[in-house]
Amino acid sequence: PSVSHDVVDTIDEYMASVGYRHYFGKGLHAEVQYLAGYVWGRDNLVDGKDYEGFVQLAEANVGYRFDFSPGSRRGFYVMPQFGYIQGLNEELIIGPRNGKDDTFWQGKLLVGYRF
User: Fold this and answer.
1) Which residue among 1, 27, 36, 56 is least enclosed by CB atoms within 10 Å?
2) How far apart are the C-alpha atoms of 115 and 77, rounded to whole Å?
3) What is the pTM of this model?
């Protein structure tokens, strides 16, 4: 909530996602996701208006899973990932972008427990 943004002063985004992760060997993987949700953008930096609506994003990442319980079906893991996220309709939702791209490079660090 209320995160600084490059197109609006602040943005709130709440989303759900579905995706697929494919492993190549022990920990190397590629992942794709589709995200959908609702967004509120306050004070667009081009026209000063507030915008809100349904948003869709696509994401692709590559990474490696480091297991801290090798050989076990359960245990903690750390998974750094790098990739990009692409807005599929965000310009329609948060207003004019003033030529700014809607593709962003990203890095993630996922920490979890495998059951």
Assistant:
1) 1
2) 11
3) 0.80
What is the signed CA dihedral for 80, 82, 88, 92, rounded to 10 degrees?
A: 90
E strands, 45-102, are 51-64, 66-67, 75-87
CA distance 114 to 77: 7
- Contact by Cβ (8 Å): 58, 88: yes
Q: Given a cut of 90, is residue 100 above it in pLDDT?
A: no
The per-residue pLDDT of the chain, averaged, comes to 91
> Residue 12: which H helix or E strand, with range?
strand 8-23
Find all residues with CB under 8 Å of 53, minimum gap 6, and list them.
Answer: 38, 39, 92, 93
* Residue 97: partners with Cβ closer than 8 Å, 6 or more residues away: 7, 46, 91
Query: Who's near 25: CB < 8 A, 6+ residues apart?
Result: none
